[in-house]
Amino acid sequence: MANLNGFDANTVEPADDLEPIPSGKYIAVITDSEMKPTKSGTGNYLQLTFQIVEGEYANRLLWVRLNLDNPNATAVEIARRELSAICRSVGVLVPTDSADLHNLPCGIHVRVKRRNDTGELQNEVKGYSKKDAVAQPIAASQGSGTDAPWKR
C-alpha cells in the first residue's frame, strides 16, 4: 500500500482518456526496459517503454514486447530482428544491458490497429529508423480520412 495522505482529487483535473495517436513516424526514446515472464510462464519477453519527445504527441508512451526467451523459435527470431532494428536506430550495435538503449533518440513508425479481443483501436510500433531519417509526422486527419478510423 502507499500513503496518499495530503492528496485531494478535488484540486486536480482528472486524466483524459487517451485516444491512439495517428499513424506516422515520431522521434522517441526508450525510457524503461524490463524482462517479464510470458503469460504461459514458458518464457520471458523484454518490454520497452518508448516516449515520444517531439511534436504534438510529446510525452505519449508506447510499449514494445520482444519475445527473446520463448519455446517458439519463430517468435524469438522475430524479436531478435526487431531488437537489431532498435539497436541500429539508436546507434548501439552491441548492448550489454537493455539500459544501454535508454534515452537515445530514434524514429519509431507507429500504426493504428484494432484489438482482436475488444475491438478497440490501439497503437503498434511497426518499425524503427535513425532520428535523422524521420520527417515530421503528418496527422492522418489531414489526408483522405481513411487512415484515421477513430475520427469518423
UniProtKB/TrEMBL annotation:
Q: Which InterPro entries match?
A: DUF669
**Could you tell me which Pfam families the record lists for this protein?**
DUF669
Origin: domain of life:
Bacteria
Name used for this protein in its record: DUF669 domain-containing protein
Organism in which the protein naturally occurs: Stieleria marina
